C-alpha cells in the first residue's frame, strides 16, 4: 500500500531468531545483514570442519554491486578473489547501506563486516558528523594505491580509497531535442518542461546534479538558478528509476543520469540517437566510489589484500565494465572500444570532503524548502 | 510471543485427545474444554497484546523517544520548532508562534497563503479520499446488488491494486496517462486533443484512488451484503418507495463502512511517499518525504517529532471516525442478504435502465483508472527493443537457475511471500477478532483503545523499519549476551501486526451491530464467551471476516520495509523486494516479476474468497 515505502531507514538483520528460521532459510552464505558470521562468532569452538586456512572476508556494499538485472561485478569479483586467496568472500547488502553500520556503531552492536565497498564523499561526511568515534580505520599499506588518479581521492584523513568513479551528465533523446551546452541554456523557453532530475536527498544522481549547480553558481547563487529552473518546469522525481522510466516513456527528452548511458543502450540494441550525452559547461560531476576497512575488523590484513586486488589493472578494468563506471586507476586495462560508448567529461568537477562537511545538509535542506514550499 | 499461540494450539490438541476417551476422562475433557472456551478470549488477548508490544510498540518507541530525549536531556523544543515553522505548518505556524489571530486569518484568506508541508499533505489526502470514495462506491453497488457471470471473481480481484509496488504503478501510469500514453492515444483517435496528467497533483490523486478505491469498494460491498433483506421488505410493505427504503434502511447500514474506507484512505494517503515523487514530483512533497530524508541523514530528533505529528493527525482522524461508528451502528439480526438483480435489464423502463447506464459509464472510467495501468504493466513485461518478447521472463528463469546465492531468486521470493502471507494471516485473524471483541464491549475509553490498536496502519513505514532494526535486530543486552530477533518468524509476526487492524476494522462494526439479546441469551444458557463468538457472532459477520482476511493477506504480500529489515538473508526476500532488486535501465525484468506477483496474488485472493465461502451464514 502507500505505506510500503520503497526504502526504509533501516537495514538488515542478525542471525539469532526467536525460534530459528524453521525452513524459511537459515544460513545461506550471502546475507543482507550479519547472519553470515555465525561461524566466526561461535566463540571459537566450532572449528571442527575445514579447520585450515579459509579466512572469511565480509564486505558490506550496495545491492546493485552484486545483484542488478543487467551486469554487476559482485559474483565475478568473489570468484576471482576466492580462487586466488584461498579465502571466503561474503557480500553483505543492508538496504540502508552505510547507515546500517553507523546505526550499529551508535547502538553499540558489533559490526560484523570487515570492510565497506561503495563509500562516497557524502557518506564519509555523514559518518563523521554522526559518530564521535571512527567507523573506519586508516587505509594503511595497500599496494597499488599510487596508481589512483589524484583527482579522485576524496578522504583527506586517508581512510577511504576510490575503486571506481561515475560522471553525472545529461542524457537526451537526440530525436526530440538537442540539449543545451550550458546550465543557462536549460532556462531557455524551448527547453521548458524538458528536463527530469531526481530528489537530491534520495538519489545519487539528483544529489550530484544539485551539487553541480552549487559548484557552478556558488552557495549564494544556486537557489536563484533553481528558482528559474523551476519556473521552466524542471521535474524532480523521487528515484533514478522514476526519472529514467519517465524519460524512457517520452515524458521529457532530457534526464540527469550517468555518462555511461550508451554502454547500456548498446547492450540493449537501442537507437544511439536517442541516448546522447551532454556535459553542461563541458563539465561532468564526478562521483568516486571508495572502500574502507572497519575499525575492529576481524581480518584487516585480508581486507587490505582485497583492496590491493581490486586496484590491479585487470580487475580495475573488469569492475569498470561490469559496474558500467570508470576505473579509479591510471593503469586499468580497459577494452579498446570502452571509451567509444562510456564518455568522460572534458573537465571533471566535484566537491571534496572539506567543502561538503558542514555544508551539504544545509544546501539540500535550503533547496527543499525553496522547491517544495506550498 | 508466537509461543503463546502455540500454547493455545496445545490446548486444542488436548481437547481432541480427551474427546475420544470415555468415562471419567470424558468428564475431565469437558472441563478442559470449558476452561479453554472460558479463558480462550483472555488468553488470546494477552498473546495479542504481548505480540503488539514486542513487535510494534516497543520498536517504534525506540525511534519516537528521540524526539523528546535529545543528547540525554528531555525536551519539547523539537516539537515547538516544528510547530512554529511555516515550512511545515504554513500560516498556522505563525499562530502557534504567537502572532495575532487577526493577522493570521487575514493571510489565510489571501490567495498566496502558505499551507506548509503538513497542510499540503492533508489537502492532497483529502482530495485522494474523495476520489477514492467516488470511484469505490459504484464498484460496491455493482458487486453487492447485481448478479452477472464472473461477479465473484471480480469481487475477489478488487483489492489487487492494493498489493502493487509503487514502481509497478509508476510504470503502469506513465504508460496509461503519460504524454504518449494509452489515454492520449484514445483521446487523439476520438479527436479530443491531449491531456498532460503526469507530474501534476491530479496524477497523484488518481494513483491514490487506484490504490484505495478498491479498499472503499471492498468494505462497502461486505457491509451491503450484510444488510438484512427483511428490513427493506418491511419498509417497502409499509409503503416506502425504493429510494426511501434505500435512504432510511440500507444507507444507514453502509455509512459506517463507507466512512471507514474513507478514514483508512485518508490515513494511507496522508503518509504516502514513493508514488508522490514518482508521478508528481518534489514540488508536491509530503510529510513522509521529509521523514525519510531526515532519517536518512540521521537527524533523528526532527524525524521522530515529525513522524509523531503525522501519527497524531492520523490517529486523531481515526478516533473521530471510531466515535462516529460507535454512535451510528444499526442493530440487526439479519442473515438473509438482499437478492441480487440481473445485470441485463429485465425491462426497458427508465428505472431499470438508469442505474445500469450509470454503471456502464463507471465501467469506462474504471477501465481507464484500474484496468489500463495493470494491462500496461503486463504489456511492459512482454516488451523488448524488438517488440513482443518473453526475454524478461527468461531473465527470471535464468536468475533462478544460475543466479548466485546472494542474489534474489524469483521462486524463493514467491514461496516466501506465500508462506509469510498464509502464516501471518493465521496470526492476524485471531488477533483481529479478539481486539474487535474487546473494543466492542462497553467501557469508558474503549474507542481510544481502538484507535491506539490501529496505530500499525498509521505509523510511518520508515519509522517502523528503523524501530525494528533498533528494537529487534540489534536486540537487547541481557546478562552479557545479546538477545536479538530476526528471520522468518519475526517477519510473520511483523506482517500479522501490520495486517490485523484490517480484521478489526471489518469485523468490529459487524459485531457491534449484532442484536445484543442474541449474545445474552446464549450466555444465559451457559455458553462460554468463546463459543458464542464462534457459533453465533462470527457466522453472522462472516463476509466481513473474509474481507478482513483478504486485506491482512494483501498487506503481508505488499509489505516491504519490515521484511527487508528482518530478513536474515536473501533467501528470505519476498516478491516486492525482488521487484525492487530487478529494477535497472530497462524496466522489463522488474515488471516481469511484478506480473508474477499479480498472478500469484490474484490466485490467492480467489482462493481466500472461495475458502471463505460466498454467502452470509456460511
From TrEMBL, chain A:
GO terms for molecular function: thiamine binding. InterPro entries: SBP, ThiB-like. Residues 28-53 are annotated as: Disordered. Keywords: Signal. It holds the Pfam family SBP_bac_8. GO terms for biological process: thiamine transport. This is Thiamine-binding periplasmic protein-like protein. The lineage of its organism: Archaea, Methanobacteriati, Methanobacteriota, Stenosarchaea group, Halobacteria.
Automatic annotation (TrEMBL), chain B:
InterPro entries: MetI-like, MetI-like_sf. GO terms for biological process: transmembrane transport. Pfam families: BPD_transp_1. Gene3D superfamilies: MetI-like. The chain crosses the membrane at residues 40-60, 123-144, 156-177, 189-211, 254-280, 300-322, 359-382, 418-439, 451-473, 540-566, 587-608. Keywords: Cell inner membrane, Cell membrane, Membrane, Transmembrane, Transmembrane helix, Transport. It is found in: Cell inner membrane. Coiled coil: none annotated. GO terms for cellular component: plasma membrane. Its main location: membrane. Residues 136-322, 429-611 form the ABC transmembrane type-1 domain. Residues 15-25 have a biased composition (Polar residues). CDD domains: TM_PBP2 (cd06261). It is a multi-pass membrane protein. Residues 1-32 are annotated as: Disordered. This is Sulfate transport system permease.
Amino acid at each position: 500500500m502507500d505505506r510500503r515505502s520503497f526504502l526504509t531507514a533501516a537495514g538488515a538483520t542478525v542471525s539469532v531468531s526467536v525460534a530459528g528460521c524453521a525452513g524459511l532459510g537459515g544460513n545461506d552464505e550471502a546475507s543482507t545483514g550479519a547472519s553470515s558470521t555465525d561461524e566466526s562468532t561461535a566463540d571459537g569452538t566450532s572449528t571442527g570442519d575445514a579447520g585450515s586456512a579459509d579466512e572469511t572476508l565480509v564486505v558490506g556494499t550496495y545491492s546493485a554491486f552484486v545483484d542488478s538485472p543487467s551486469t554487476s561485478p559482485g559474483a565475478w569479483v568473489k570468484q576471482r578473489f576466492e580462487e586466488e586467496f584461498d579465502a571466503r568472500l561474503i557480500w553483505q547488502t543492508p538496504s540502508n547501506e552505510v547507515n546500517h553500520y553507523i546505526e550499529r556503531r551508535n547502538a553499540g552492536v558489533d559490526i560484523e563486516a570487515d570492510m565497506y565497498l561503495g563509500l562516497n564523499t557524502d557518506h564519509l561526511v555523514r559518518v563523521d558528523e554522526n559518530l564521535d568515534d571512527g567507523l573506519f580505520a586508516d587505509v594503511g599499506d595497500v599496494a597499488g594505491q599510487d596508481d589512483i588518479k589524484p583527482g579522485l581521492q576524496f578522504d583527506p584523513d586517508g581512510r577511504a580509497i576510490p575503486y571506481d568513479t561515475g560522471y553525472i551528465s545529461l542524457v537526451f533523446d537526440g530525436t526530440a531535442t538537442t540539449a543545451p551546452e550550458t546550465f543557462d541554456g536549460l532556462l531557455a523557453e524551448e527547453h521548458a518542461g524538458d528536463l527530469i532530475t531526481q530528489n537530491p536527498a534520495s538519489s545519487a544522481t539528483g544529489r550530484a546534479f544539485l551539487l553541480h549547480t552549487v559548484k557552478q553558481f556558488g552557495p549564494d547563487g544556486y537557489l536563484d538558478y533553481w528558482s528559474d529552473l523551476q519556473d521552466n518546469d524542471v521535474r524532480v522525481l523521487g528515484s533514478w528509476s522514476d526519472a529514467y522510466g519517465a524519460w524512457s516513456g517520452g515524458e521529457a527528452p532530457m534526464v540527469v543520469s550517468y555518462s555511461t548511458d550508451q554502454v547500456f543502450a548498446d547492450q540493449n540494441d537501442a537507437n544511439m540517437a536517442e541516448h546522447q550525452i551532454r556535459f553542461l559547461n563541458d563539465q561532468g560531476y564526478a562521483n568516486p566510489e571508495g572502500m574502507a576497512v572497519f575499525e575492529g575488523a576481524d581480518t584487516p590484513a585480508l581486507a587490505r589484500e582485497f583492496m590491493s586486488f581490486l586496484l590491479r589493472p585487470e580487475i580495475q578494468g573488469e569492475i569498470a565494465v561490469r559496474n558500467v563506471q570508470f576505473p579509479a586507476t591510471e593503469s586499468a586495462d580497459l577494452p579498446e572500444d570502452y571509451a567509444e560508448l562510456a564518455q568522460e567529461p572534458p573537465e571533471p568537477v566535484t566537491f571534496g570532503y572539506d567543502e561538503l562537511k558542514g555544508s551539504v545538509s544545509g544546501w539540500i535542506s535550503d533547496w527543499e524548502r525553496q522547491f517544495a514550499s506550498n | 510471543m508466537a509461543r503463546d499461540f502455540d500454547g493455545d494450539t496445545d490446548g486444542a490438541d488436548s481437547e481432541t485427545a480427551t474427546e475420544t476417551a470415555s468415562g471419567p476422562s470424558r468428564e475431565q475433557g469437558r472441563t478442559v474444554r470449558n476452561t479453554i472456551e472460558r479463558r480462550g478470549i483472555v488468553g488470546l488477548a494477552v498473546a495479542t497484546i504481548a505480540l503488539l508490544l514486542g513487535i510494534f510498540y516497543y520498536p517504534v518507541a525506540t525511534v519516537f523517544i528521540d524526539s523528546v530525549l535529545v543528547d540525554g536531556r528531555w525536551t519539547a523544543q523539537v516539537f515547538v520548532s516544528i510547530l512554529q515553522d511555516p515550512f511545515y505548518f504554513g500560516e498556522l505556524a505563525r499562530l502557534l508562534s504567537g502572532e495575532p489571530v487577526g493577522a493570521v486569518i487575514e493571510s489565510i484568506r489571501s490567495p498566496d497563503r502558505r499551507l506548509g508541508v503538513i497542510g499540503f499533505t492533508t489537502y492532497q489526502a483529502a482530495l485522494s479520499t474523495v476520489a477514492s470514495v467516488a470511484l469505490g462506491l459504484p464498484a460496491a453497488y455493482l458487486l453487492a446488488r447485481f448478479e452477472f457471470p464472473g461477479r465473484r471473481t471480480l469481487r475477489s480481484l478488487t483489492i489487487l491494486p492494493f498489493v502493487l509496488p509503487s514502481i509497478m504503478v509508476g510504470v503502469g501510469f506513465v504508460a496509461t496517462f503519460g504524454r504518449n500514453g494509452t489515454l492520449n492515444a484514445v483521446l487523439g483517435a476520438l479527436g479530443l486533443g491531449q491531456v498532460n496528467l503526469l507530474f501534476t497533483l491530479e496524477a497523484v490523486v488518481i494513483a491514490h484512488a487506484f490504490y484505495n478505491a478498491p479498499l472503499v469498494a471492498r468494505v462497502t460491498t461486505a457491509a451491503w451484503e450484510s444488510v438484512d433483506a427483511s428490513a427493506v421488505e418491511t419498509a417497502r410493505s409499509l409503503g416506502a418507495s425504493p429510494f426511501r427504503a434505500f435512504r432510511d434502511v440500507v444507507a444507514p447500514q453502509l455509512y459506517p463502512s463507507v466512512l471507514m474506507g474513507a478514514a483508512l484512505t485518508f490515513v494511507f494517503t496522508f503518509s504516502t511517499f514513493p508514488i508522490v515523487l514518482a508521478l508528481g514530483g518534489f514540488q508536491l512533497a509530503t510529510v513522509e518525504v521529509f521523514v525519510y530524508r531526515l532519517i536518512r541523514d540521521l537527524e533523528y530528533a526532527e524525524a521522530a517529532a515529525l513522524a509523531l505529528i503525522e501519527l497524531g493527525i492520523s490517529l486523531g482522524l481515526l478516533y473521530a471516525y471510531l466515535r462516529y461508528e460507535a454512535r451510528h451502528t444499526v442493530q440487526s439480526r439479519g442473515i438473509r442478504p438482499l437478492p441480487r438483480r440481473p445485470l441485463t435489464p429485465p425491462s426497458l423502463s427508465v428505472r431499470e435502465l438508469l442505474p445500469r447506464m450509470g454503471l456502464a459509464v463507471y465501467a469506462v472510467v474504471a477501465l481507464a483508472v484500474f484496468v489500463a495501468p495493470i494491462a500496461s504493466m503486463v504489456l511492459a513485461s512482454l516488451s523488448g527493443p524488438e517488440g513482443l518478447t518473453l526475454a524478461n521472463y527468461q531473465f527470471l528463469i535464468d536468475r533462478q537457475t544460475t543466479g548466485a546465492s546472494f542474489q534474489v531468486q524469483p521462486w524463493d521470493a514467491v514461496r516466501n511471500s506465500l508462506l509469510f502471507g498464509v502464516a501471518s494471516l493465521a496470526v492476524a485473524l485471531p488477533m483481529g477478532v479478539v481486539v474487535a471483541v474487546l473494543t466492542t464491549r462497553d467501557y469508558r475509553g474503549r474507542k481510544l483503545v481502538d484507535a491506539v490498536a490501529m496505530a500499525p496502519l498509521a505509523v510511518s513505514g520508515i519509522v517502523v523499519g528503523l524501530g525494528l532494526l533498533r528494537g529487534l535486530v540489534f536486540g537487547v543486552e541481557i546478562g552479557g549476551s545479546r538477545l536479538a530477533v530476526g528471520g522468518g518468524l519475526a517477519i510473520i509476526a511483523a506482517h500479522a501486526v501490520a495486517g490485523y487492524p484490517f480484521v478489526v476494522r471489518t469485523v468490529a462494526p459487524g459485531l457491534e451491530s449484532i442484536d445484543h439479546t442474541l449474545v445474552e441469551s446464549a450466555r444465559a444458557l451457559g455458553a462460554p464467551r468463546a463459543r458464542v463468538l464462534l457459533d453465533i457472532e462470527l457466522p453472522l459477520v462472516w463476509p466481513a471476516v473474509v474481507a478482513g482476511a483478504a486485506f491482512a493477506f494483501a498487506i503481508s504480500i505488499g509489505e516491504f520495509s519490515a521484511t527487508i529489515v528482518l530478513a536474515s538473508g536473501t533467501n528470505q526476500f519476498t516478491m516486492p523486494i525482488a521487484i525492487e532488486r530487478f529494477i535497472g535501465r530497462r524496466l522489463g525484468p522488474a515488471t516481469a516479476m511484478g506480473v508474477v506477483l499479480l498472478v500469484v496474488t490474484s490466485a490467492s485472493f480467489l482462493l481466500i474468497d472461495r475458502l471463505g465461502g460466498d454467502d452470509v451464514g456460511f
